Amino acid sequence: MKEILSKLGLEDVNAGTWCGAKPMQSGNGAVIDSLNPATNERIASVHSTTADEYEKVIAEAREAFGIWRMTPAPVRGDAVRRIGDALRDNKDALGSLVTLENGKIKAEGDGEVQEMIDIADFALGQSRMLYGKTMHSERPLHRMYEQWHPLGLVGILTAFNFPVAVAAWNSCLSAVCGNVNIWKPSPKTPLCGVAVQKIFAEALSGLDLPNVFYLINDGSNELAQQFVNDERVDMISFTGSCQVGRQVGAQVAQRMGKSLLELGGNNAIIIDEFANLEIAVPSIVFGAVGTAGQRCTSTRRVIIHESRFDELKDLLVNAYKQVRIGDPLDAKTLMGPLIEESAIERVEKAVEAVKKAGGEMPVRRQARRGPRQLHGARYRCGRERLGHRAGGNLWPDSLPDQGKRPGRRNCETERRAPGTVIVNLYRPAATCRALPVARRVGLRHLERQHRHIRCRDRRCVRRREGNRRRPRIRIRCVAGLHAAADEHDQLGH
To answer: What is the model's pLDDT at position 454?
Structure first.
């Protein structure tokens, strides 16, 4: 652990407020302890940003914006190129820090840093492609043209589950457009924010450029609320839950600001009667257990054609039993811990709700809390015990009776946990009414039911989208569409 921190220039106690390469550390800010979710051990600490430090950051960022906006876009792109090169040099160390502080496996940590590198390369290209149209005018000797101008200050609030990639997605593109960026990382992963700030600052050292990247930290929500409501911040980019995202969007809109919201999801995989389960099963399992199921893109539900239910369920149970749980820095580990105690409690409540709805637990282990876990146990899944950190469950849940409201609620609610709800309700005739469709999570299920008509060149399709019925549509028959089931693989189905 000390080697990882040393490579990234991190100390035991770090400044949490940065203006480019210049730290602000009055010593008055509260200390945020960063804990390793796999062991609950303290990694290092970061000072919170004070009210005075925040005002200095905003004032300096506004001043820097006046210079940065006048910097040619290709020059701004070259600065981001240098950042991409610096990330390449620090990929292993930064990826290890992501794993250490977040709990995702090493391959995912390295992959997240690679996404930062990729977006830096993309932003470099975009810096020479900020095109605008020219148009003819009805007035003689005049022309009209459009030109894109930067917004100003862009505030970036990120979640713990992607502690570095999301910040880079926002800041690299924002920087080449001429904006100045202020990043507030999650209080669960403050060291990642400091490490990235140091990498960015080192990459731009020696250049005659203003400070473009700023960092603030907050162990509570007070500074975050002030940040969102600050009229001097022209745009807020927020990544987090739908519940908080609604509040952020409303608050920014109230002050006539701009917002970019990347919120949660309740994703489903649909398995039809012709699905290749050799491809589907690994996709479902890693989609559910990747980052311990704490991603907005995690697999939450599997909707299966009734003819494949038993087969897929057996394969999934067998696959889940083989998931290796352990130290996320170990290359053989497939899944690490959940991030904190509250995550464990949410999972346990979800399990109880599923059981009340009549669901089964094909793969189930009890969560255990060890004596050394003073700040809350870390939820783990699997079949093997890991000393005082043993326990957890990994549950594909069977909810056969979705007609009951509690069962539907389990499908409609996003749960950040490494579990998958299996719904046995995809039938040739009654699918539309049986499938859980919730407007509030933005799910729109499209189901097509084919009925063959004794007609050579036509077939009838009844189409339903969401809760809205569509009239019958007649379309031309496609050659090979009605081939036997065993021929569908050859037809690309």
So the answer is: 36
Beta carbons of 177 and 67 less than 8 angstroms apart: no
Collapsing DSSP states into helix, strand and coil, what is residue 123? helix
Q: What is the pLDDT of residue 289?
A: 84
Distances (CA, A) of 107 to 34, 92, 96, 199, 315: 21, 10, 9, 21, 25
Q: So what's the pLDDT on residue 414? A: 64
Backbone torsions φ then ψ of 446, nearest 5 degrees: -110, 120
Quote the CA–CA distance of 311 and 133 in Å, as a whole number.
Answer: 56
| Candidate list 202, 262, 360, 465, residue with the active-site label | 262
The total number of residues shown for the chain amounts to: 493
Task: State how far the Cα of 362 lies from the Cα of 230, in Å rounded to an integer.
Answer: 50
Cα–Cα distances in Å, from 184 out to 68, 217, 219, 346, 366? 21, 6, 10, 25, 36
Which mean pLDDT values do the consecutive 10-residue runs of the chain (493 residues) have?
91 94 84 91 94 95 97 97 97 95 92 96 96 92 92 96 95 97 95 96 94 94 93 95 92 95 86 89 87 82 84 86 86 85 76 69 47 29 25 31 44 60 48 42 36 35 37 35 34 33
Q: Which residue has the tokens 């189930």?
A: 364
Kindly state the DSSP code that residue 414 receives in the 8-state scheme: -
296 a catalytic residue: yes
How open is the CA angle 203-193-9, to the nearest 5 degrees?
55
Contacts of 3 (CB under 8 A, 6+ apart): none
Q: What is the pLDDT of residue 359?
A: 64
Catalytic pick from 19, 172, 296, 411? 296
**Which structure tokens are listed for 488?**
């569908």
- Which of 96, 41, 40, 33 is closest to 344 using CA atoms? 40
Q: What per-residue confidence (pLDDT) applies to 60?
A: 97
Check if 340 is active-site. no
